Amino acid sequence: MIRFDGVSKKYPDGTVAVDDLSFEAPTGQITVLVGPSGCGKTTSLRMINRMIEPTSGRIWIDDQDTTSMDQAQLRRGIGYVIQHAGLFPHRTIVDNVATVPLLLGWDRRKARSTALELMDRVGLPASFAKRYPSQLSGGQQQRVGVARALAADPPVMLMDEPFSAVDPIVREQLQDEFLRLQQELGKTIVFVTHDIDEAIKLGDQVAVLRVGGHLAQIAEPARLLAHPVDDFVADFVGRDRGYRALSFQQSPPLPVRQEPTIGIGATPEEARAATSDGWLLVTDDDHHPLGWVEPQHLSGPVSSAMLHRGGTLARAHGPLRHALDAALSSPSRRGVLIDDDGALIGTVRAHEVLTAIEETERPAAEPAIPVGADGEGELRS
Ligand SMILES: Nc1ncnc2c1ncn2[C@@H]1O[C@H](COP(=O)(O)OP(=O)(O)OP(=O)(O)O)[C@@H](O)[C@H]1O
């Protein structure tokens, strides 16, 4: 557990970057610090490993006051990942990953074999080991950065906008893999981002900071969306927060309808015989949905080039947001539900999902309490 206890940072020019910050980052969980540019996120993060010294207050890791710890020893227990990865350009990938173990005096062979294992864990092929950072894409470099931070198996990880410099698709992949990795590793992570969507997706709890380094609210993502404590947090979490909160509500059993289907290669006559509706779902041999066709407009056998692939797919017992999105994005307005293997279960309509939403209790019924509002700075999310 990392605990900020009344921590402030005033830079020599008088800028107050962090003001009386108190919160706890629980062991084995991801705590995200989010807020607008200049609100003191990076300063807060760097005070944990004492790259920046607080002006006042204390930061504790478990029962130890970090100011009383030897700096080198403190940092040995903390992995640090930054935007653009910050790799050494003249070292190979395997040597970059092995940096900390080598500094710690591990023998070269053990350091390298650990580095190779970690590369595999973060999804980098062993063939990259001998490459240099400039020979990797931005997303691959970020993976190296994560592997390097994990190399000495530190219990704590500090991550400062680690996925910001890559395109949205790669970013999403990195986020998904990061969550998968965290499920296995259970590190205590403090993660900085300015992107509320990233914060909501990754955080077990999310701390929203406002400029001047004040903590506006700390809460679990669902609660933050349902009960922002003030206008600043409400604006920051966004106007579509009601919709986004559905991500955290598991779908109750929905009224699933059987959906007629055809396969690739079906003739227009077969397609028209399969349904009288304007749209027909096309599946593969394993019953995985591929897309939709309009039987009345078919001029030849169904081919993959003809498919309308606009609709998203939702797992039957996944979040309500996915089910609603599947219905809204489907050209037929029938949302496609699949099982865990990706096979078709049936379809659902938007109004049926909305009925399910109305019948589902809203999360986090009592209001969140702003941390620090009463001067105690206790975490009560
Ligand atoms: N070395 C410094 N000297 C003076 N002021 C500084 C220094 N470093 C940061 N600041 C100021 O402290 C405030 C907080 O900076 P910090 O980098 O912690 O914010 P941030 O939330 O991480 O911002 P961003 O999202 O833009 O990276 C800002 O006003 C910044 O200008």
Q: What does the model show?
A:
This protein has 381 residues and is of the alpha/beta class. The chain is 32% helix and 22% strand. It has two domains: 2-77 and 155-248, Rossmann fold, CATH 3.40.50.300; 261-359, CBS-domain (Roll), CATH 3.10.580. It has 14 helices and 16 strands. The strands form four sheets. Strands 6-7-8-3-9-10 form a six-stranded mixed sheet, with helices on both faces. The protein has a four-stranded antiparallel sheet with strand order 2-1-4-5, with helices on one face. It is globular and about 80 Å long. Bound molecules: adenosine-5'-triphosphate (ATP). Adenosine-5'-triphosphate is lined by residues 11, 13, 15, 17, 35, 37-43, 194. One of its GO terms (molecular function) is ATP hydrolysis activity.
- Overall geometry: globular
Read across the widest sheet, the strand sequence of neighbours is: 6-7-8-3-9-10
Structural class determined from secondary elements? alpha/beta
Determine the CATH superfamily of the largest domain. Answer: P-loop containing nucleotide triphosphate hydrolases
The major β-sheet equals: 6 strands, mixed
CATH topology of the largest domain: Rossmann fold
N- and C-termini, Cα separation = 15 Å
Number of strands: 16
What's the helical proportion of residues? 25-40%
Unreliable segments (pLDDT under 50, ≥5 consecutive)? 368-381
